[in-house]
Amino acid sequence: MKSSTTRISPLFLLIVGLTALGGVLATVDTELALTTGVLLLVLGGWALSLCLHEFGHAVTAYRGGDLSVRSKGYLTLDPRHYTDPVLSIVLPLVFVAIGGIPLPGGAVWINHHALRSRRTESMVSLAGPLTNLVLGMLIVAAVSVVPMAPGLAAGLSYLAFLQVIAFVLNVLPVPGLDGYGAIEPYLSGPARRFGEKARPWAPLVLFLLLLGVPVVGRLFFELAYFVFDLVGGDTNLTALGQAVFRSLFRF
């Protein structure tokens, strides 16, 4: 039998089921079913991607020498193990719902002293955002190849775009984000100390700039759309999926 520290979490499987239900409802040709389906599909899919993002960090760290991630439950895909449920799951989902910029979700605490090399440390940091990119590419490929109802294709396209946004956001070399974690092992001592001090507030400043300074937000989304186009994403379907998704949040 699998150890409870590696067995897939029933909560994760429940979210898989809700996401699949959303996909089914998104194929129904009624407004209520369509909007409910896209909502479940996008929110459920995003919650799953948060878990997979953190699992990517954890499994790379485990293979790189930090065996403690197993006992911490990080290999179970259980969202409850990825720090605070509100800050790690609920708040990012709320930001997706109201703003479309997905916050970094949870975090896994890695014993960097156990990792074998600086290259391994970098790969641990990059594993999360690369997981988002791969998920986005797989979803885009599915939409392109598999015949499906327009509502389902639109919802999946929007979910794929969120994965690309998460990738672009997380690889920025800002303290507190994975992009900075990838270069941190190669920085000088003073630079690393400054990054440690900036880690708690730097992401907040970034999000304030993205949401409050139009030119910064525009440049960011232009980059995200550029990457989305590179992986073959359909911007028209994405816009439709986003419109349906946000329709439930208009008051």
Automatic annotation (TrEMBL):
TM helices/strands, residue ranges = 86-110, 122-146, 152-172, 201-221
Please provide the record's keywords in A-Z order. Cell membrane, Hydrolase, Membrane, Metal-binding, Metalloprotease, Protease, Transmembrane, Transmembrane helix, Zinc
Q: Where does this protein reside within or beyond the cell? A: Cell membrane
GO MF terms, alphabetically ordered:
metal ion binding; metallopeptidase activity
Question: Has UniProt tagged this entry with the keyword Ligase?
Answer: no
What CDD domains does the record point to? Answer: S2P-M50_like_1 (cd06158)
Membrane topology recorded in Swiss-Prot or TrEMBL: Multi-pass membrane protein
Q: Please provide the Gene Ontology terms (biological process) for this protein.
A: proteolysis
Required co-factor? Answer: Zn(2+)
Q: Which family does it belong to?
A: Belongs to the peptidase M50B family.
What name has this protein been given in UniProt? Answer: Zn-dependent protease
